[in-house]
Design a protein that fits this description.
heterodimer; A: about 240 residues; alpha+beta; four-stranded antiparallel sheet; 6 helices; B: about 240 residues; mainly alpha; 2 domains; 8 helices; about 0% strand
């Protein structure tokens, strides 16, 4: 019982949050000097993060494992502190002022969940394609046809705009006609298909990227909640001071 | 460029005649507008334009604080020196006239950059306020430092969220593991730490002021150090 009380007190403490944030900064700080000098990190996006972590030695990945551990404890700490704060201050008149930091915390937790989902089930694949190329999308019965590539170049040789017309085929039947252009990827069945690079010489060629980010929607929800919480908090604090 | 050199001079002369800080800011604002017309877009890419924007943002956002502090000479001098330093640094970089890559022509990118630099500007102002608090021990200065950081943190967080939305549309992912993103996470966590420690009575005052000054060191490395020294998604 005493041990349980100690554990609960540990997770309810602001001191714990402060230590964890400090530790996280220290671990990421170390990682910031390991990452740029190790060649292995160039391929970190090729597979889901957890898969990549398992494939590489601990002496270059320890800071990422460490940060995952710290964030796991911080998650429990955040949940405990938020629940305690709501219970303690539920009768307060400044209810919105009490709840807005908790909305920020919920947004932060959603962002962590997003990273967890993408780190487990994320996927990225690349393929070079020309007009007329057919590509099989991994783990599906869908094929992608590159219909046309339009690249606009100014007189100085800079690419000013581009568009790639694509068609999705399922069992030899066209199921969707779409176009990819800058900041306008083609979204199909949870996949994001976009162009990472393109060239006109010797012939029009694109480097296509097919990615799956299972955490994208959660990250968006988390971002919106975080934003709403911070803006509300600042407005309310400003009003209170006036 | 002449306008920019003039604005640098005005910031320096603001140490003698304080109202020249406003003249320096107006000149810099005119320079940003003229660059915008020249390029046909918001001038927010590359070290030259972003340093000018940062310098102008510091001068502009310091004005309401200056009013609260009733034209505190130390604060105005600190802001004038900071704005002048960033303007001088901007002058050392060649202004780019190349067209913006198509991928950067989106409102999410513009909002991402504008909000990030407004955040950086408030963190710079907070560092000046923190320094003055250590010298003068006036609680109002430390309180204003906290408020600057809180609003700067809000701008910076929203900038990161908008950056994530843009990255998902441009590159199919909202997070890329490069040194820039890593340092951005360090910076964000550093100011999260500041806001949490300041909830504890012991930290209010000198420790918080020192942390607020140290935070600007992290800002500088995230902005200039990483972009200039390391290969990342934001390299110049």
């Amino acid at each position: 019982m005493v041990i349980l009380k100690h554990i609960i007190n540990f997770f309810l403490s602001l001191q714990t949050s402060i230590w964890l944030l400090g530790l996280f900064i220290a671990v990421f700080f170390a990682g910031a000097f390991i990452m740029p000098v190790r060649e292995e990190f160039r391929y970190i996006h090729s597979v889901p993060l957890f898969e990549w972590l398992k494939e590489h030695p601990l002496w270059i990945t320890w800071w990422l494992w460490g940060s995952i551990g710290i964030l796991s404890v911080l998650t429990i700490n955040t949940i405990f502190c938020s629940i305690e704060s709501i219970i303690k201050k539920r009768r307060s008149r400044q209810w919105l002022l009490i709840i807005s930091p908790q909305i920020i915390h919920i947004g932060f937790l959603f962002l962590l969940l997003a990273h967890l989902l993408s780190s487990v089930g994320g996927f990225k694949g690349h393929a070079v394609a020309k007009e007329g190329t057919f590509l099989q999308i991994p783990d599906s019965n869908i094929a992608l046809h590159i219909k046309d590539i339009d690249i606009q170049i100014d007189k100085y040789g800079f690419i000013t705009d581009w568009a790639v017309g694509i068609e999705y085929f399922s069992e030899r039947n066209m199921v969707k006609n779409d176009s990819i252009s800058p900041n306008n990827p083609s979204l199909k069945g949870g996949l994001n298909i976009n162009v990472r690079d393109l060239t006109t010489l010797p012939e029009k060629t694109v480097l296509l990227q097919v990615s799956r980010e299972p955490g994208a929607l959660w990250a968006l929800i988390g971002g919106i909640l975080f934003m709403a919480g911070t803006v509300t908090l600042i407005i309310l604090k400003a009003k209170l001071e006036k | 460029m002449l306008i920019l050199v003039l604005s640098f001079g005005m910031y320096l002369f603001a140490l003698l005649k304080r109202h020249l800080l406003y003249v320096g800011f107006l000149l810099q604002a005119a320079y940003i507008v003229s660059r915008g017309f020249e390029l046909g877009r918001l001038p927010l890419a590359g070290p030259h334009d972003t340093l000018v924007f940062l310098s102008a943002s510091i001068a502009a956002l310091s004005m309401p604080i200056s009013r609260i502090l009733k034209n505190h000479s130390g604060f105005q001098n600190g802001i004038a020196i900071t704005a002048a330093a960033f303007t001088l640094l901007a002058i050392t970089f060649e202004p780019r006239i190349t067209p913006l890559p198509p991928i950067l022509r989106i409102i999410w990118f513009e909002l991402h950059v504008v909000l990030a630099f407004l955040g950086y500007a408030l963190f710079a102002i907070a560092a000046v306020l923190g320094y003055l608090f250590l010298k003068e021990k006036t609680n109002l200065l430390e309180g204003l430092q906290y408020r600057s950081i809180l609003i700067g943190y809000c701008f910076f967080s929203v900038s990161m969220i908008f950056g994530g939305i843009w990255a998902y549309l441009a590159w199919g992912t909202y997070w890329v593991w490069t040194p820039k993103e890593l340092w951005t996470a360090i910076l964000w966590m550093f100011y999260s730490l500041y806001l949490h420690v300041r909830l504890r009575q012991w930290w209010i005052g000198r420790p918080a002021a020192i942390l607020g000054i140290a935070g600007f060191g992290v800002v500088m490395f995230t902005y200039l150090g990483v972009s200039l020294l390391m290969k990342s998604s934001h390299s110049w």
